[in-house]
Design a protein that fits this description.
Two copies of one chain form a homodimer. Chain A is mainly alpha-helical. Chain A contains seven helices and two strands, in the order ααααββααα. Chains A and B meet through helix 1, helix 2, helix 6 and helix 7 of A and helix 1, helix 2, helix 6 and helix 7 of B. Chains A, B: Keywords: Cytoplasm, DNA-binding, Transcription, Transcription regulation.
DNA sequence: GTAAATTAGATTGTATGCAATTTAATTGAC
DNA sequence: GTCAATTAAATTGCATACAATCTAATTTAC
């Protein structure tokens, strides 16, 4: 009886971490929504655009679906329809690689590149809205990064 | 030009927190999967069962869909079909309240109560698998709780 | 060199999330 | 007391997530 109670509370405490991750993640996504609506993007679509914008700066070669999925931890079952929607929006293009026909390379259209300017204000605006301490947010980021590494190993 | 670069990196940093929340949350849910599969539960269904098990201990009156949604930050659009599945599985019952016909009260079936014994080992097992420091996890939980409060205010 | 194994994407099916609307019941204003 | 707001669930529609399967292309074993 006493043992069972102990197990239950331990379970609940540990559980609250996973639930808090789940609840915080959804809550942050909700906070993004009013900022992303004017761009016509969902949150996962916004993450894809962020990766493509970063790649656009750093690499001459554009990423494949595989490389994008590796960065975002999403598979083709999620990305294929999402990327088709971004293509419908005129933000990206998709090209089969000529040297390996299995791969699909992504590219930003002119509008896709241009949207970056309209997105630049978003992170700051969100940080202001939460009113959280910046050092606290950086510390949290570091800890979550460590946790993610542990979960993936 | 320099200003734009500064905005971009600031954006990327802040973004990594929201992305890490998103990635960690999904990664933790994946880690739960092999432990929940034997119970035939998905992760959101498991969260619902956790709330009902807690209520079962503490309150004589069973929660409504509204109260459950308030606890999990989920609305009826998500919960109604999920609860119907739990009912199909024979784990819960749903009863219209007689004093207010708009409300639906939830109850655990005998099997729903019994499943708790088969779920008790899950949190410990998961904590062991991640190999994370317990104090670290508690600290992270506290910080996420603070963040969630800020996001919801 | 060719068959088997592997790989990258696409597809299918199930289960969330959530905005928006609908329905039915209750409450409030007057 | 009655009609307008409000409320609790349910429903609808859209966009993820993700397991499982499929297809086509490439590698590997031999």
């Amino acid at each position: 009886m006493k043992g069972e109670q102990g197990n239950d509370s331990q379970l609940a405490l540990d559980n609250q971490l996973c639930f808090l991750l789940y609840a915080c993640s959804r809550s942050v996504i909700k906070a993004y929504k009013p900022l992303l609506d004017p761009l016509g993007l969902t949150y996962p679509q916004y993450l894809v655009m962020l990766v493509l914008w970063e790649w656009h700066d750093e690499a001459p070669q554009l990423p494949t679906v595989k490389a994008l999925g590796s960065r975002l931890r999403l598979d083709s079952g999620t990305l294929t329809p999402l990327l088709k929607r971004l293509q419908q929006l005129g933000l990206i293009g998709r090209q089969r690689a000529s040297n390996d026909e299995r791969q699909v390379h992504l590219e930003l259209t002119r509008e896709g590149v241009a949207m970056r300017d309209r997105a630049r204000h978003i992170p700051q605006q969100l940080a202001c809205e939460t009113g959280a301490d910046l050092n606290e947010l950086v510390s949290l980021r570091t800890r979550l990064n460590t946790l993610l590494q542990q979960l993936e190993s």
